[in-house]
Amino acid sequence: MKDDDNLTTERPTFVTHLECAMQGDHYPADQVHNLSKAGKPLLVRYDLAGIKKALSKEALAIRPADMWRYREMLPVRKCEDIASLGEVMTPLIHLPRLSKKLSSGEILVKDEGRLPTGSFKARGLVMAVSMGKALGISHMAMPTNGNAGAALAAYATRCGIKTTVFCPADTPEVNVSEIEVQGATVYRVNGLIDDCGKIVAEGKAKVGWFDTSTLKEPYRIEGKKTMGLELAEQLGWDVPDVIFYPTGGGTGMIGMWKAFAELEAIGFIGARRPRMVAVQAAGCAPMVQAFENGTEHARRWDDAQTIASGIRVPQAIGDFLVLRAVRESKGFAIAVTDEKISAALDEVAREEGLLLCPEGAATYAAYQQSLADGRVSKSDRALLFNCATGLKYPLPRVARALDRLQPIDYARF
Ligand SMILES: Cc1ncc(COP(=O)(O)O)c(C=O)c1O
Predict the structure, then answer these.
(1) Which of 147, 155, 169, 227 is nearest to 393 (CA)?
(2) What's the gap in Å between 316 CA and the centre of ligand 1?
(3) Which of 164, 342, 382, 410 has the smallest count of CB within 10 Å of its CB?
(4) 209/205 Cα distance (integer angstroms)
(5) In 3-state terms, what secondary structure has residue 296?
(6) How many CA atoms lie less than 13 Å away from 369 in the CB half-sphere?
(7) pLDDT tens string 116-142
(8) Residue nearest to atom 2 of ligand 1 (CA)
(9) Does residue 1 register a pLDDT over 90?
């Protein structure tokens, strides 16, 4: 089979309509949408019985290993609209030394840093931009903590779509630069991501751009859903016991939960579900607070601060969907301090040779904490998400040097 078969072979599509995630009212497919009438996210619905007839595990197994192998379960209808940069299936990396050290069960890291633009935001944004192209959108705007803006810029540029991006002023430098270099116009804003979101929302009427904010656009969830499809296939159509997900807007959590339901409906997996754990930073933990208080929605987190900038999201429009996935799965929400995040990053790199991003390191810190307090058992198979390549973030400078003009003391090595 050709390498680009998933991108070039037309396959049947099964989207029937979109549905309000809160009220359940329906909206037509193949039209531009943001939120539902109730101001809530829209979910894409499929003819699952049709997919069940059209798709087999065997047919999937021989397709090229990228996220487009699941085309029947995705919303893009025509090959010509796919804005791909090579969205490879990301590997599951075992951490055997650390599980031995902790006397724990198997620890797997789904390493999303291998994707185009170096983060899992590529999954959501390739879908949003491909659908934007299919629906004739010419200008997309977005608030971002960095990685999502970079992915939007890359894919939109590929499709000739104009892009305007707003990020907090202290967003990692590499993110601000990559957004601009990849063809978008980026502005630093003296505020947090939700302040940037207000600018995008106001500009919708005034400029006419499309608001591509997390969950105000229906297709990013479908892209992130492929994380759940992929990991189930990689585990032989099974699920791990527990998934630790670094939660900002929560698109990936919501997407994976939707993936498992759809996989069960088409007969690919059974009723067993992983416990879904929302990992947040202690300096910005609205979901953890809501989970502990037993509320359906989360209150805005004031003065949000953390080194894990991707999860510095004080308020999320899909809060109720994240909390629903966590509760229905009998999972939990957990906060970790920046000190623990840094220590986790160091430990995984030193012991296993795997350089995580701070948000990914937060999941390992949360795993350790949950093992220690008994919320995860020593026999659980745990899956952690490394959502971006560690190479995007500032690393400590090494001062050690050698003067080659002086005699070298080889005894020191
Ligand atoms: C590296 C990283 N991790 C995690 C997240 C949070 O992802 P989600 O919006 O799916 O919760 C982000 C979002 O910006 C991110 O950039």
Answers:
(1) 147
(2) 12
(3) 410
(4) 8
(5) coil
(6) 23
(7) 999 999 999 999 999 999 999 999 999
(8) 310
(9) no
